Amino acid sequence: MTEQVPVVEKILSANDHLASVTRKLLDDAGVFGINIMASPGAGKTSTIIELAKRLKDDLRIGVIDGDVETSIDADRTRAAGMPSVQINTGGGCHLDANMTFNGVQQMDLSAIDLLIIENVGNLICPSYFDIGTHLNILIASIPEGDDKPYKYPNMYRNVDVLLVNKTDLLPYIDFRMDYFTQGVEILNPGLMTFPYSAKTGEGMDAFVSWLKERVAAHQHG
Amino acid sequence: MTEQVPVVEKILSANDHLASVTRKLLDDAGVFGINIMASPGAGKTSTIIELAKRLKDDLRIGVIDGDVETSIDADRTRAAGMPSVQINTGGGCHLDANMTFNGVQQMDLSAIDLLIIENVGNLICPSYFDIGTHLNILIASIPEGDDKPYKYPNMYRNVDVLLVNKTDLLPYIDFRMDYFTQGVEILNPGLMTFPYSAKTGEGMDAFVSWLKERVAAHQHG
């Protein structure tokens, strides 16, 4: 066991280096990159499709979809009109910088303003890896329950923005918003949070406006 | 990379050996062990508590709760009257046989008939590890969506029983049961499946009866 720690450090250091290279590629092309993480079924792909509908007159969007197997997500985002690259991890529980570096090579960066990377559905592993984006976003979901910040603290601690999806289900679920918010605040004080429903569209405009401003600031900053 | 495969094989082989030792310990004590896996928030702990209510006159139940951090789950199962051991993986995305072997040492096996091990909330990593139980159970959840068998095939392929929780939310969610069932059938033909709601109790009796028979067959078989 004593030999394991240096190896892990080396992997993470190589990962961080490659993530910086990827971020530089995006910067040079004027592309803003976001990493979307969530549990299985929290609504990552649906949210990306709804975002695209609302951003299509302002921003050109490309998507890299990470999954263990299949191209279901990339098929959906491509069908929604976005250039899409599917990365299959072959059993791996997260994307790493090497995977997204390779994915970015397959994307025409001159044709997009915003690159959305959909990570593997998992609240643990993805939180440990910089994949070369500018913003880490977590999508929580009401039916997952209000205790998730307490149970998956590393994820909540390391994100820049929190989206809380499926607010349309609040009337049917025992979800203590106070308890949830308190957990988030302990781990990540002042975290920018947007409750919404990808299904009904309620609350999406606030996040869309905020994201447009962030992309514009990156392009002109 | 060429050196990695033998190392992984060695880890898995050591894991499988220790899992067999744990299973033998349970067998010798006449304890039936089940491994419950699911996404974050699919309702593992709630289901265990509801099972316990319905089994309390027939079986003595002990619980080992696996989580990345905190003892929230073990606190809940202990409060529900069951001897409980919390295992924290410290960032790890699944339980392994070494963890459950250690957990079993802390449980008085002569005082229980059924050991329920609640795995870490994750649809990927836990599916690769035998943790020394007799039965692998997956809890799917309606709000996760109907495409999960297709996206997490290794999990669906390797379980012995499928529970489908939160059927009370079916009226509010676009869940194509045919598409879901078809995916399950491709990966795991004839998989025993029980739809239910831990919240309303609907459908729980069928699984409870089935489980009681399995435990009885193990004790007298």
What does this structure look like?
Two copies of one chain form a homodimer. With 221 residues, the first copy, chain A, is of the alpha/beta class. Chain A is built from eight helices and seven strands. In chain A, strands 3-2-4-1-5-6-7 form a seven-stranded parallel β-sheet, with helices on both faces. In chain A, strand 2, helix 3 and strand 3 form a beta-alpha-beta unit. In chain A, helix 2 crosses helix 8. Chain A is globular, with a radius of gyration of 17 Å. The termini of chain A are far apart. The model of chain A has no long low-confidence stretch (mean pLDDT 95). The interface between A and B is large, with 37 and 37 residues.
Summarize the entry for a quick read.
Chain A has 221 residues and is an alpha/beta fold. In chain A, 41% of the residues lie in helices and 18% in strands.
Count, helices of chain A: 8
Largest interface: A-B, 37 and 37 residues
The protein's oligomeric status is homodimer
Gyration radius over CA of chain A: 17 Å
Question: How do the SSEs of chain A run, as a string of H and E?
Answer: HEHEHEHEEHHEHEH
Q: Name the shape of chain A in a single word.
A: globular
Sheet having the most strands of chain A: 7 strands, parallel
* Average residue pLDDT of chain A: 95
Structural class given helices, strands, pairing of chain A? alpha/beta
Distance between the termini of chain A: 46 Å
Number of strands of chain A: 7
The share of residues in helices of chain A is 40-55%
Strand order of the largest sheet of chain A: 3-2-4-1-5-6-7
